[in-house]
Amino acid sequence: MKKEGISFEGKNVLVTGGAGFLGSWICDVLVHQGAKVTCVDNFASGLAKNIEHLKIKFIEHDISKPIEFDEKFDLVMHLASRASPFEFARYPIQILKANTLGIWVALGIAKKHKARFLYTSTSEIYGDPDPRFIPTPESYNGNVNPTGPRSCYDEAKRAGEAFVKAYELQHGMDTRIVRIFNTYGPRMRAGDIYGRVVSRFIEQALSGKPITVFGGGSQTRSFTYVTDEIEGILRLAALDEAEGEVVNIGSDKETSILELAKMIKKLTNSPSEIVFQPLPKDDPRRRCPDITKAKKLLKWKPGVSLEEGLRKTIAWYEANL
Length: 321
Ligand SMILES: NC(=O)c1ccc[n+]([C@@H]2O[C@H](COP(=O)([O-])OP(=O)(O)OC[C@H]3O[C@@H](n4cnc5c(N)ncnc54)[C@H](O)[C@@H]3O)[C@@H](O)[C@H]2O)c1
Known about the structure:
Layout: E1 12-16, H1 21-32, E2 36-41, E3 57-60, E4 75-78, H2 85-90, H3 92-98, H4 101-113, E5 116-122, H5 151-171, E6 175-180, E7 183-184, H6 197-206, E8 211-214, E9 220-222, E10 224-225, H7 226-238, E11 246-249, E12 254-256, H8 257-267, E13 274-277, H9 292-298, H10 306-320
Parallel strand pairs: 1-2, 1-4, 2-3, 4-5, 5-6, 6-11, 7-10, 8-13
Antiparallel strand pairs: 9-12
Helix pairs in contact: 3-5, 4-5, 6-8
Nicotinamide-adenine-dinucleotide is lined by residues 16-17, 19-23, 40-46, 62-64, 79-83, 98, 102, 120, 122, 180, 182-183, 189.
């Protein structure tokens, strides 16, 4: 990761959801840069092994319930939330709580400590965007079904953003919101309800099971390799000029799900056949961010190609599955 212009040396940082995929990568970089890190996680979808190599303070706790700290934080990063579509179906109330009650608790800590606050929102807040708004800029307000199967996540994240803006307005807090687009890489959990499209396809390909594409596979996503994503998030957290900003961080290269399936099959030399299953309700047809703002404000752009990122990710799953 490029470090120019950003430093967390000597900073005291609270990371909620730090035992998860993105949270553990963030803790890694923060510790590497000399920050003092406290992680709060209830292992809803995270794993102890993601952070056991790190010298950090760990507290097992559900962030939707109040918690007090003695030390003073400089930065609070709220990541705690399940994020897989299969989890939306099984744990919708937990997801709503993590992004409403949970963000309320996390904002309260940041307010008390006069700390900067960063919230990990999502491209899902755009719902199924009107094709005229692809690539999607931060100014697009979204096309979201408030009562559909994804609403526990989409609407919770939209409420989370509203919480952040309310605390900024009423208490003058220094806040930042990152809208993350599909990120993949080592430590992304596979299997059962945790798998997301990249981890699910790789797991299926490596085990010779059918690769299950929903619908015809023409729906698109923008896939960002984890080191690129983390760099963008940390630049947003670190730069003074990003105060109050909402920024898309993701690859601006759109890839269809069928293309992704074929790529993973090829890169794993898998005998798996690609099979088609019904498209879930409200599955977004296209997803691609406009990243003009991230380029200008954060001097950030993704650098890892999908093929390169998938090769690294596949190698990790081969060693760790
Ligand atoms: N990875 C992506 O592509 C992506 C895309 C958009 C947004 N995001 C957001 O980034 C954040 C991290 O996502 P991830 O991919 O690392 O997911 P993840 O499931 O790997 O990590 C989430 C972490 O939060 C913890 N957690 C969940 N509910 C909690 C609670 N109530 N109290 C304490 N800890 C709790 C989990 O145990 C887990 O460790 C989430 O907020 C997610 O919505 C991720």
